[in-house]
Amino acid sequence: MQTPVAVEGRPLLPEGSIVEGHLQTTPARRMMHAGALRMIFDRIKLPDGTVHPAAFELVTAESDSVKVDNEGAARPTISKKRLALQLGGSLAIAKLADDIAEEALAAGAGSARYYGLGAAAAFLIIQKGREVKLREGDVVEVEFVRTGFSRATDRE
Predict the structure, then answer these.
(1) How many CB atoms lie within 10 A of CB 54?
(2) What whole-number distance in Å separates Cα of residue 125 and Cα of residue 78?
(3) Measured distance CA(140)–CA(68) in Å, rounded
(4) Which residues contact 81 (CB under 8 A, 6 or more apart)?
(5) Which of 49, 59, 109, 111 is most exposed, with the fewest beta carbons within 10 Å of its own?
């Protein structure tokens, strides 16, 4: 930490303390299922070298590409550009499959439409969801969690 942390004027963590933790990732595996990233901060290393257990939870991330849900998991935001590319790509694939079916397979105009529809559906199905990407300089805010509680269960 670059500055000491104090609560109601009492020093809590001195300058130079390091909060350590690990990441739990859930990759995007299927269509429209976005990946998730959970940051778990579980240790505080003080400047004198002593290590103490801790429990911090991600609250917010100042990033256009990430939002944090009420359970502390970071998820990618919906990109209108990506959605437009997916829709445009599926329409282009559908038209291409339709034209190929009419010309190469000598299918009628009506049945060629089904080839186009199938190709567009396959194009959408094989695409996986978005991944979480934090960039250098993105600021995240964490909150101390009482033992046995999380922000989601604390509110209920």
Answers:
(1) 17
(2) 18
(3) 10
(4) none
(5) 49
Bridge partners for 24 per DSSP: 38
Q: What is the DSSP letter of 136?
A: T
Report the candidate in 56, 47, 104 with the shortest Cα–Cα distance to residue 96. 104
Amino acid at 65: S
Surface-to-core class of residue 134, CB atoms within 10 Å of its CB (0-12 exposed, 13-18 middle, 19+ buried): middle
44's tokens: 């505080």
Residue where the block lists tokens 């429990």: 55
Helices 80-103 and 109-125 cross at an angle (nearest 10°) of: 140
* Predicted model pTM: 0.57
Q: Tens digit of pLDDT per residue, the chain (156 long)? A: 667 777 787 877 888 888 888 888 888 776 667 788 888 888 889 888 889 888 888 888 888 778 888 778 888 887 788 788 888 888 898 888 888 888 887 777 778 888 888 888 888 777 777 778 777 877 777 777 765 545 554 444
HEC assignment per residue over 11-34:
EEECCCCEEEEEEEEECCCCCCCC
Residue 26 tokens read as 């859930």
Q: Position of tokens 């990430």?
A: 66
* pLDDT for the residue numbered 155: 46
